[in-house]
Design brief:
Elements: H1 13-25, H2 33-43, H3 49-63, H4 76-83, H5 99-112, E1 118-120, H6 121-130, H7 137-146, E2 150-152, E3 158-161, H8 168-183
């Protein structure tokens, strides 16, 4: 187990010595290692050694914030395998066999739905049928709802696309399929 070193400073050496003397005189036996650490840290204003370590760790995190988050890496293999289910078009010609590819395909279909408006079931079905080549738009609609990308009224008469940022792979797949749409 590696040890982390913690800088220890006592603003008043005389007060430190007096505090240690008082704590040692109150004892009948010699303190152990951890007890000495607790005494030293209490002498400079901490509850115990754990409080001292946690405080130093927090100061370190504040002094050295993590580097700016970079864009998450895209798994291009997953994007490519899912893109094959679209066969070079914006139509999902077959339902992917793997769950993670199904999720990516659903993000693409989500992108075809109108944003920020309530849509009747018939209109949602029309969009999904237009981009569905395997004949099961109901499966797609249900999975969009299950995945939280589409909400529906209690009576299933109105649907609304849930606005959220797609994950990196989904954005890449949407971009790829959009480029196919422009070419066609």
């Amino acid at each position: 187990m590696s040890r982390t070193s913690n800088a220890y400073a006592a603003p008043d050496l005389s007060a430190l010595a007096k505090n240690l003397k008082r704590e040692l005189e109150a004892r009948t036996d010699l303190p152990g290692h951890v007890e000495l650490l607790n005494m030293l840290t209490r002498a400079v204003g901490f509850r115990n050694y754990q409080h001292f370590k946690a405080s130093r760790a927090a100061e370190e995190r504040l002094a050295n914030p993590p580097a700016a988050e970079t864009q998450p890496a895209v798994d291009y293999r997953r994007v490519e395998l899912t893109a094959r289910c679209f066969a070079g078009t914006d139509i999902l010609v077959r339902w992917p066999g793997k769950f993670n590819q199904q999720q990516l395909a659903l993000w693409v279909l989500w992108s075809f739905l109108p944003a920020g408006e309530d849509v009747v079931e018939k209109a949602v079905n029309a969009v999904l049928m237009r981009h569905n080549g395997f004949g099961d738009h109901v499966l797609i609609r249900r999975e969009l709802v299950n995945m939280g990308l589409l909400t529906r009224a209690r009576d299933c008469s109105l649907y609304r696309r849930v606005e959220k940022r797609p994950p990196a792979e989904a954005r890449e797949l949407i971009r790829l399929i959009s480029s196919w749409r422009r070419i066609a």
